[in-house]
Structures are given as C-alpha cells and as structure tokens.
Amino acid sequence: MKALVKEKAEPGLWLADVPEPETGPGEVLIQVERTGICGTDLHIRAWDGWAQQAVSAPLVVGHEFTGEVVETGRDVTGIKPGDRVSGEGHLVCGTCRNCLAGRRHLCRATVGLGVGRDGAFAQYVALPAENVWVHRTPVDPDIAAIFDPFGNAVHTALSFPLVGEDVLITGAGPIGLMAVAVARHAGARNVVVTDVSEERLELARTVGASLALNVSGASIADGQRALGLREGFDVGLEMSGNPVALRDMLANMTHGGKIAMLGLPAEEFAVDWARIVTSMITLKGIYGREMFETWYAMSVLLEGGLDLAPVITGRYGYRDHEAAFADAARGRGGKVILDWTA
C-alpha cells in the first residue's frame, strides 16, 4: 500500500510502498478515505527538536483520519465491515489508575498514533477496536477526518459553562476556529478571537466570532471597549502557545475568570502569578479528548447544526502531499485534507 513515511532522520516525508498492517484479535483494519494534516505532522516533517526526541524512523505518520472498516479481529464486537469510522489517536494502557477509573485521557503511558506507532497517512490503518469511533449518523468525510482536532476544540471550549459568558480565544488556527464555532453554538454572549493573520481572522468571522482582533495593531483591551465589556472576559481559551497571548489574556480576565489552555508553549515563560492568585483565576490544562465523552459531544453538536465546513480550506489528493503540507505550513488558513481515494 501507499503511505507517507518518515523514512530517515532528516527533514521530509516520503510517499512509499509499505506492507499493509496486520490486524490483531482486538483490532480493526480501516481503509482510509481522508486524513487531516496536524501541527504534529508539520513538526515531524520539519524534523525539529521535538520530533527528533519523539519519533523513531522509519514511521508511517498521521493521526487524523476517517475511513471504512474492511476487517475486524476475532475478539471485536460492535464494529463491522462497512462501518464509517474515525479514530482516537491516543492509545492507552488500560491498566493504570486513571484508565481503570474511566479517565483514559489521563493515562501516563499514552502512545500516539503516527508518533509512537505507525499512523493513518496510508491507504490502510490498523487500530484497537476501543479506539474506533463509529459514525452512527451520516457525517461528511472531510469533517469526519478532523474529529481528532475537533475534539481538542470541544474538550477545551466545554471545560467551563459558556451560556451567556464573554469568551476570549487567543489563536485562530484550525482548532481555535473550531472553538469559536463551538462557543457560539453553546450559547456564549460574545466570542472574541485574536491572531495576527487576517486570513484566519476572516475565517473566524465566518464561523461566528463577535470580534476578530488583529493584535499586531490593536489590543485585547481595545476589543473589550469595542464590545462595551467593563469587567473583563469570563472564559479564556488559549490556543496559540504564545507567551504574550497568555499574558494578555490574564490581564483581561474578570475576577474569578476561568482559562482552559490547549496551546503548547515551545519553552517555559513567566506569568503574573500575583494576578492569578488575587483575581482567583482558574487555569486548566487540556490534552487530547475525553474518551469518549468528547466524541459523543462532537457528534451531537454536528447533529444539532454546528457547521465546520468553513474551517476546511485546503483539499488535495495524497500524491500532492508536498503542496498540501506547504499549504498547511503557511499558517494562514484552516484545516488541510488529504484524499486517499483519489
């Protein structure tokens, strides 16, 4: 089969012929239809410091996907050939304290699909049945391919109650854009998103932002004044990993405000801890998705009319992966999809 492979410990990805994955007794074999390019994939392609520590070549990369089940292991129940599925890319041990308590997203032994084991940028992928999400209602394949990052957005956005709240989102990348749509759909009063890319800010307006603010020329305080907010934001969703973004968010939160942080900083940085303490601000780190409560919430949100179509701005056949990765690396659009049926 064809697959995108990190063949060597150097920058690049290579389209190569590799053996089809074998299916164990508790696994499912999936014929891949669409995949989404993630920031993690860009890091692996660039072979930066993180990738050099996290990845061992050769490796089939990719973890955002959808496809059709073609084979199930002998111990698999509830999933059958022909089912349309997506996959949870965090593979957990199942035996640690958190796994046994149903908190699998907190497993300390998590292995990442396409990072710690062969992934989904291929014509076929094998996955443990417990990591397979069956789409019981019709979902557009492009949307089904991005359930993994959509789950990041839902997990982050729904960490705190949003009805009637004023929400600040720092970072209008693909997950930030999806969080805008979720916050608006969930009943937030105002949803303000910040970035330095006008293209991404325009996408944020399309998916429902009350105000899309280019912080290269305006401040979050300016945004507050424009909306008539007097006490600051109730909920913050930090999606950028940018130190300045978090500091500015903290400076514009109301007393008792709550911040969910998904953005991953490249290095340590200082924040105003005195403000956090005296304003009684809650900081909550977010990683991945709650398995599988977040997945249920995603499906329900889509059934309820949430529209993510504007977030997808690039579609390519898998043979055009170089152009697709270049598009994603520009950092000015939304999600980029690879079609493995073309």
From TrEMBL:
Cellular component GO terms, alphabetical: cytoplasm
Alcohol dehydrogenase-like N-terminal domain span: 24-133
Active site as annotated: 40 (charge relay system), 43 (charge relay system)
Reaction(s) catalysed by this chain's protein: L-threonine + NAD(+) = (2S)-2-amino-3-oxobutanoate + NADH + H(+); 2-deoxy-scyllo-inosamine + NADP(+) = 3-amino-2,3-dideoxy-scyllo-inosose + NADPH + H(+); 2-deoxy-scyllo-inosamine + NAD(+) = 3-amino-2,3-dideoxy-scyllo-inosose + NADH + H(+)
Pathway, per record: Metabolic intermediate biosynthesis; 2-deoxystreptamine biosynthesis; 2-deoxystreptamine from D-glucose 6-phosphate: step 3/4; Amino-acid degradation; L-threonine degradation via oxydo-reductase pathway; glycine from L-threonine: step 1/2
Domain of life: Bacteria
Subunit structure, interactors included: Homotetramer.
HAMAP family: Thr_dehydrog
Protein name: L-threonine 3-dehydrogenase
Species, as recorded: Streptomyces qinglanensis
Gene of this entry: tdh
